Amino acid sequence: MKLHGVEKVVRRSIKKVGQYTFHQVHRAQARQVLRLLQKKYGPPDPANLKLADTYARDVFGDAKYAPWLRVYAAFSGTFKEGWIPDNYYGGVVVPSMKGGYGRISNLKPMSRVIFGCDAFPDLAYFANGLFFTDRNLVVREQEIEHVVFRECDKIVFKLDGSAQGKGIHFFDRESFDCGLIKSLGNGVIQKFIVQHPLLSTFAPNSVATLRLTTAVDNLGRTSLRAAFLRLGRARHTHIRIDDEICVPVDLVTGELAREGFLTDWGATEEHPDSKVRFAGLKMPAFNDCVDTVLQLHSKVPFARCIGWDVTVDSDGKVQVMEWNGEHNDVKFSEATQGPCFSDLKWELLNASPL
């Protein structure tokens, strides 16, 4: 009995350390962004920063939620009630509105099982020592090459839990290596997508992705909350978080904003490599993209907020490349398009916060 009590104390202590570290990391990140914004655009209005501090204490119950609110206010040049701090989202909203269900999205071979949708470019999977098709038929190792190159000449292998451009590997017929894939770990083999010509004008070597954020309200209704286009650089084969360009997209029309933003939050009216301007352009098949993710989210309503990475191929078809049911990015959308979730009353959640 005493040992059980000691274990409980140890677990509580570990949890407290984790909570402290989590918020310290977010505090440091937010302060760095605030310094970048000040360097580029000048000092933020002290009145807006004060409103952010007050709002964090009065609405979210703790000053530790102020740093991201300060970033949103400095970026926007004003303060808006209803903003969700990114550390509040990760520490309170995610465990309260997703729990363990959101983590399913890390297991890439589960996507077809869950959604049963051909919008995923999945060809095959490797998990726990087995190769199997997108229809869950186990395939012998010596046959998998034929399976994945039956309809394409280039494939992408993505590890479970891969994100931010990490854990992604490209193969063609000559370089394909079953042994290498097995050594890398569990994941999905997807066809290499030839993107829509408009998207290719920005950076032809990396596939542009449209990040759509959807949420389910307390009546079970699914809706689009945010949208932005993620663009890679000319020197890379895929989008990398350390040098991507993010362009807000109108939630109704699919039109790109006049300005996109670099990783240092600096504004740009054109892609830095191709010099293609954003103004006047519209995301191809935008309505189809939105309809697709709303339908998919209705199949997993228990993960109440999901970030989807989709693109449109050269035939104009929607391709769902990733879905993130855990701590999907909300800070960029909150700063550029928010408040995105104010009607959901997430500030009232009575979770066991981080």
From TrEMBL:
Q: What is this protein identified as?
A: Alpha-L-glutamate ligase-related protein ATP-grasp domain-containing protein
Annotated Pfam families? ATPgrasp_ST (PF14397)
Residue intervals of the Alpha-L-glutamate ligase-related protein ATP-grasp domain: 186-334
